[in-house]
Amino acid sequence: IPFYGELGSVNPVFVTEGAAASRPEAIVSEFIESFTLGAGQFCTKPGVLLVPRDSAIVERLADAELPKAAPLLNPRIQEGYVKTLDELASQSSVSVLRSGDADADLGADPPGPTLLTTAAADLLADLREGRDEVFRECFGPTTLVASYDNEDELLAVGQFNPRGHSGGMFAGGLAGGDAGGLAGGVGESVGESPPAFEPVTV
User: Fold this and answer.
1) What pLDDT, in 10s, does the model give residues 12-47?
2) Which of 6, 17, 138, 153 is catalytic?
């Protein structure tokens, strides 16, 4: 009997203001490579990317080249993916930034990579109230980009983040104590620029 051992996790990636200003192109390239790896069917896939609202990250993601659509493991996973994606995209605080195939709908089979956007404030409200409507796993080639207004919001998401399989941080310009606190939302350590978005040390 086939067993696909995906155990469920959101795996957020945190981008500090300093990192976003110094290397936005590299961050976008590495993040796209990671969330689309294996058509997003890894339990370590980054499901949320937190970026400064006034950075170039969101604009670059909107214009970046995305991989072509790829089939999911089986029809049941495809069905679950479409259901979760529809539920996420239907939230009043969530918008579709782009989909890999502009001519296809979100329920296409095979699915193209999809980027959703929200505000970090709405993500925080979802976490604090335990609704799991926005901060949730979407198993497949979809990720949520949350824009924060200041690094206090970034740190707050790190404090509320439930345990996951993985996480990552593009660091730069964050005070040592704050970086250490944020590490609680990433893993046991903080990364400078982790291409696979697993915890690494500075």
Assistant:
1) 999 999 999 999 999 999 999 999 999 999 988 999
2) 6
Per-position DSSP letters for 70-91, written without gaps between them:
---SSHHHHHHHHHHHHHHHTS
Per the residue annotation, which of 17, 25, 43, 65 is the catalytic one? 43
Exposure b/e, 92-124, CB count within 10 A at least 16 = b: eebeebbbbbeeeebebebbbbbbbbbbbbbbb
Catalytic residue list contains 138: no
25 is catalytic: no
Amino acid of residue 131: R
What pTM was computed for the model? Answer: 0.84
The DSSP-derived string for 35-48 is HTGGGG-STT---E
